[in-house]
């Protein structure tokens, strides 16, 4: 408590120091200490004038028109040892306007997740887990797709693997051994039918007991082997 024993003849109000108007934006950095110059992906990172992109064509049997998926990447810390390529935005273009609304919504959400930074690999599993209630379809080559959204998930996965953000999924040793076993069983079963399926003799020929060739046919009223000449008539 301060006692004032003199007449007040004037006063002044203390003002806070003027803040700098142009404050440099504090970008999140990777690491710390000596690595303060390394910039990582974050949602406030401004879009450059030019981005590097990759376009993927998606042709499904459930639509007459193909979709073209473009994923643009930003280069972080370009020209340094910490240079990284990260996805920045995604666009989907198609002549089929039936899917226009969900395509616009999906691309905006995925692009926002891309710009958020961090681990974005969860997007792949979330998209691949979407199933169409009307049923999926088979790709060329025999791969089943449960929905168009799931195929977009496979495209995002392919792109993330290409830029090094994800590791290509591989089978474990148990799965590889199982596939090798099933392949060997199939090849063995095919060997048993090769003698009957690949023959230079007429269709319907039977196996000869003498030369073990599928060449026995009915000729002149007698079963005769066209390979060794053995005949039931002597």
Structure description:
- The chain is α+β, with helices and mostly antiparallel strands and 234 residues long.
- The protein has helices spanning 100-116, 122-128, 148-162, 173-197, and strands at residues 52-58, 67-76, 84-94, 137-138, 144-145, 206-207, 214-219, 222-225.
- The strands form three sheets. A three-stranded antiparallel β-sheet has the order 1-2-3.
- α2 packs antiparallel against α3 (148-162).
- The radius of gyration is 36 Å and the shape is elongated.
Tally the helices.
4
Q: What proportion of the residues is helical, as a percent range?
A: 25-40%
Oligomer: single chain
Largest sheet at a glance?
3 strands, antiparallel
State the end-to-end CA separation: 138 Å
């Amino acid at each position: 408590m301060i006692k004032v024993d003199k007449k007040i003849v004037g006063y002044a109000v203390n003002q806070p120091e003027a803040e700098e108007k142009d404050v440099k934006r504090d970008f999140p950095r990777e690491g710390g200490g000596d690595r303060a110059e390394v910039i990582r992906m974050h949602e406030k990172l401004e879009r450059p004038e030019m981005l590097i992109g990759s376009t993927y064509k998606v042709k499904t049997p459930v639509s007459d028109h193909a979709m073209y998926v473009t994923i643009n990447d930003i280069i972080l810390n370009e020209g340094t040892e910490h240079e990284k390529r990260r996805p920045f935005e995604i666009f989907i273009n198609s002549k089929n306007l039936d899917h226009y609304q969900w395509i616009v919504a999906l691309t905006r959400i995925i692009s926002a997740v891309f710009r958020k930074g961090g681990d974005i690999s969860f997007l792949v599993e979330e998209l691949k887990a979407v199933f169409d209630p009307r049923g999926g379809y088979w790709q060329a080559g025999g791969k089943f797709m449960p929905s168009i959204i799931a195929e977009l998930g496979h495209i995002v996965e392919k792109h993330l693997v290409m830029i090094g953000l994800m590791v290509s999924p591989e089978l474990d040793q148990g799965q590889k051994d199982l596939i090798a076993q099933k392949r060997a069983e199939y090849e063995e079963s095919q060997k048993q039918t090769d003698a009957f399926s690949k023959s230079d003799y007429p269709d319907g020929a039977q196996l000869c007991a003498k030369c073990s060739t599928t060449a026995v046919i009915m000729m002149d009223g007698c079963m005769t082997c066209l390979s060794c000449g053995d005949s039931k008539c002597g």
